[in-house]
Amino acid sequence: MLPNMDIQGARNIAEKIRKATAEQRFHMAGQEFSVTMTFGLSQHKENDSIDDSLNRADEALYQGRKPDAIWPWDDWPECRLF
User: Fold this and answer.
1) CA distances from residue 32 to 10, 26, 70 in whole angstroms, order as listed
2) What is the mean pLDDT of residues 22-48?
3) What are phi and psi of 80, to 5 degrees?
4) Does the pLDDT at position 36 exceed 80?
5) pTM of the prediction?
6) What is the DSSP letter of 76?
7) How far apart are CA 52 and CA 58, in angstroms?
8) Which residue in 5, 11, 9 sits closest to 41, CA to CA?
């Protein structure tokens, strides 16, 4: 939850976290690995219930978890903003 922030601000924060995480290399049991992250973003609308907003975020997360579903934030058409 990012109160008082619009969807673009949330995208910017999510992208910073995604990039920082992807650039890290972790070591465990003699092996190196990296981690990726997927985010589900939704902006609360005036007449939405909390469930409506959370369901849209959940759907965005589900869509982002599909194979080969890496979308640059700037290329998302508005219909992708669940």
Assistant:
1) 30, 5, 23
2) 89
3) -80, -15
4) yes
5) 0.68
6) -
7) 10
8) 11
Rounded Cα gap, residues 77 and 68, in angstroms: 17
Q: Are 60 and 78 in contact (CB under 8 A)?
A: no
Q: Is 45 exposed, middle or buried (0-12, 13-18, 19+ CB in 10 A)?
A: exposed
Residues 58, 62, 68, 69, Cα dihedral to 10°: -30
- 39 near 14, Cβ under 8 Å? yes
Give the E-state strand segments of 1-82 in sequence order. Answer: 26-28, 31-33
Written as six digits, the tokens of 11 are 């995208």
DSSP 26: E
Domain boundaries, the chain: 7-80
